[in-house]
Design brief:
Length: 228
């Protein structure tokens, strides 16, 4: 991937979420997701906040060197915690904030304005530059990878009760899979029967490991979930 196309996976990830929610009515935006306690509208609001954070980060150049990369960034957040270290508090805040909109569809409109702006900013960013976000300094490509990984996992969260919704695109999914591979280790291999989506859902703690998974993974099974 060239410096001019580094933002393509993020563009695909955000466009994938847009394709999921763009035509949903207010009733469908209140369907459950894989994130405990969050409806589709609540989770979309959370991802909207991530796109807004992307805009801020991409406008916040920093001096290097970076203190985390696209994999170690996630290791700084123990599974079960969000970036602020308090998953339950953030979940409650996101639900209340999403409920403050006059209707769920208003969150979709804000998302469809914000996500493309974040992608344009990503495409215009210096691929050799550094930015700051969540108290860390990252290379621009590593920031884009973290944003893509989170968007892909949440895309899979969104479609729990939307069986006809499209899955994330190949480019974006590939970035998320590479992230999980990095968290897993060089010596560990995921079970061959897992699809990319199943791998991501189990790595993110959305699906439990089966007895067969435990057997195939061996000691590595204790590392799951790889991120929360």
């Amino acid at each position: 991937m060239t410096p001019h196309t580094l933002h393509y996976p993020l563009a695909q990830a955000y466009d994938g979420i847009t394709r999921v929610v763009a035509d949903l009515d207010d009733a469908d935006l209140q369907r459950p997701t894989r994130c405990r306690g969050w409806l589709v509208a609540d989770l979309l609001f959370h991802v909207l906040c991530d796109a807004q954070r992307a805009l801020v980060a991409l406008a916040s150049p920093a001096d290097g060197p970076p203190d985390v990369d696209d994999v170690s960034y996630w290791r700084a957040i123990p599974p079960g915690e969000d970036e602020d270290g308090d998953d339950a508090r953030h979940a409650w805040w996101a639900r209340r904030s999403a409920a403050a909109f006059d209707r769920p569809g208003a969150i979709v409109r804000l998302w469809t304005d914000t996500a493309p702006a974040a992608v344009r900013a990503a495409g215009a960013a210096d691929p050799d530059g550094h930015v700051t976000t969540q108290g860390h300094v990252l290379r621009v490509p590593d920031l884009l990878a973290t944003l893509t990984t989170e968007a892909v996992v949440h895309h899979l969260d969104l479609v729990l009760d939307l069986p006809d919704a499209p899955l994330p695109g190949v480019l974006a999914t590939g970035v998320a899979v590479t992230t999980m591979d990095g968290l897993l280790s060089d010596d560990a291999v995921r079970p061959a029967a897992w699809s990319d989506a199943e791998y991501l859902l189990k790595a993110a703690g959305r699906l439990p490991l089966t007895d067969r998974d435990q057997l195939e993974l061996g000691e590595v099974a204790g590392w799951f979930p790889l991120l929360g």
